[in-house]
Amino acid sequence: MKTVPVGVSARHIHVSPEHIEILFGKGYELTNFKDLSQPGQFAAQETVTIVGPKGKFEKVRILGPARPSTQIEVSRTDSFALGIKPPVRESGYIEDTPGLRVIGPVGEVELERGVIVAARHIHFHTSDAEKWGIQDKQKLRVKLHGERPLILEDVIARVSDQYALDMHIDTDEGNAAGVNTGDLAELLE
Amino acid sequence: MKTVPVGVSARHIHVSPEHIEILFGKGYELTNFKDLSQPGQFAAQETVTIVGPKGKFEKVRILGPARPSTQIEVSRTDSFALGIKPPVRESGYIEDTPGLRVIGPVGEVELERGVIVAARHIHFHTSDAEKWGIQDKQKLRVKLHGERPLILEDVIARVSDQYALDMHIDTDEGNAAGVNTGDLAELLE
């Protein structure tokens, strides 16, 4: 059985250097709170409030390091509570997506775009992908062995020698199956 | 293709006659707000607030008619927000489940038990089940053709001549797939 560790992502935000300065003050640098599974990525100490037309969430974790464009990843459940309808997208593809208001301790930003529901995907190190015969961008089927077992289709393979083996799903997907970060999923043929 | 209409259930509560009187007053009768897919079942006009150790939800819809035991059905996502850990159960099986505080306009009830995450299931009229060769309690596999397609395993068949064909899933499952009430799911062989 080919198994892949699961990482369940709660709502979070990647912030551009410009927006970090607006939200937290000039020259501000994010603080590493905890390393994430992908090399160089970290959960920051800092959080923000995100505000939509219908609702808001406080203490939304920033993931670092800073990125060229600010991007907010929410679950479909979150999007209903916020009152917006973001598309399911791969990270980085934020054309024609809705925005939100982002409030930090020093200032706030009205995003014109940047909110997505992250498309589920698996990060493969090149060596894992070669061993299992998997190509970058390939769509995979993955079984989650939780309290309510289910099979995810169209799971996108992302292959790089900068990646560590890990499947990223959101809280809707994790809770629908009853799996948690660190559980093992089964890659189907 | 064997298709089944989907009903996505948001958090809701079934209330006993005794608890209706405590919450709404002596002799109170529920008001039918909207008929549901199953004959005789309805969404009531009335709502309550449910309160857990960590959070609460207001305007939780009562489904009628009254039942012998009060039962609250929440999603796994809801259960984290409330701060309780209800098991995945078929409706009616509330032994060893957590409770919640329920607040109505007149009074309130501290439930000792009754909170579950409803196990997904399909109601089949006897004639549908005979046509497709499905037995009561059989476990089925069902494909959801939403924005994020997935296959649900262990979907419980419930067969009765009192039922209308309908699959019941919760908001975590609906949102993980991106399906809504009225969409069609595919019953797999």
From TrEMBL, chains A, B:
**Keywords associated with the record:** Acyltransferase, Metal-binding, Transferase, Zinc
What EC numbers are recorded for this enzyme?
2.3.1.222
Tell me if Zinc is a UniProt keyword of this record.
yes
Which GO MF terms does the UniProt record name? acyltransferase activity, transferring groups other than amino-acyl groups; metal ion binding
Q: Which cofactor does it need?
A: Zn(2+)
Spell out the family assignment given in the record's similarity comment: Belongs to the PduL family.
What reaction gets catalysed by this protein? propanoyl-CoA + phosphate = propanoyl phosphate + CoA
Q: Which biological pathway?
A: Polyol metabolism; 1,2-propanediol degradation
Entry-linked Pfam families: PTAC
Q: Does the keyword Protease apply?
A: no
GO annotation, biological process: 1,2-propanediol catabolic process
Entry protein name: Phosphate propanoyltransferase
Q: What class of enzyme is it?
A: transferase
User: According to its UniProt entry, what is the function of this protein?
Assistant: Involved in 1,2-propanediol (1,2-PD) degradation by catalyzing the conversion of propanoyl-CoA to propanoyl-phosphate.
